[in-house]
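Obj: model holo form, ligand = iron/sulfur cluster.
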Amino acid sequence: MSKIKVSELFYSLQGEGMYVGVPSIFLRVFGCNFSCSGFGMPRGELSQERFAVDPSKHSDYKSLPLVHTGCDSYASWDPRFKHLSPFMHVNDIVTEMQKLLPDSGFSNDKHLIITGGEPLLGWQRMYPDLMDEIINRHMGLKHVTFETNGTQFLSNELYDWMYQNSTWIKFTFSVSAKLPCSGEKWEEAIRPDVVKQYTQIPRSNTYLKFVVATEQDLDDAVIATHEYRDYGVFCPVYLMPVGGTNETYELNERNVADFCRDNGFRFSPRIRVPLYKNAWGT
Ligand code: SF4
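Output (holo structure tokens):
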């Protein structure tokens, strides 16, 4: 039985990166190999903010508080919140997608985004079944984005499925590689060998996206970009201001934009912060 532990399934606008503003179904799956507790903290310190959220007081995502520090989607991987993410059969996931999509399908440039957590952990073995089900229902799927941290190789099964279907489905890998400001170790987070595999799917788009706040983060982004280039990964690189809340986001938005302009990086906004206050399910 093909089941996936689903944290959230919702319809919204892509909030960041290359396809910002594109109407999309988001499938957020449970689990991550990182915790990224360093975001928004002084270098070397880890956020404890999520531990102040009492899981027993919440029965759905929409009631969860936003955090100012650490990973802003903590409930999609922290085991304390796993009761909020039910196992769903792929058929039921697709039925739910049909209910959420205005015309029950992906017509007129709507995308499917598979996110997390880290979506390329174990659940990747279910994606061929999931996408076959969407195809069998003639929903017009033409574009799938994986929002990944770029540390997980594609399994042979998923790689082959994507390779065979790449003529009619465009696959995008939005690789949010984690710099030291995340609190994760460089050698575990910056994996050009993994990202190179993504670029080998025909017609696929791969781009890197670094979350930055300080001058040191900008320097790290430059060094990491060289590391990917040295390995033969030549793809667009976006810099995106840190911040799950308006106060934090607005603090460094202009600095990051200016740095991108002056140094030949692409700037990514986070439109879900001003539009929807980064609320769950948006
Ligand atoms: S990789 Fe992404 S989902 Fe995982 S902890 Fe870091 S920011 Fe959160």
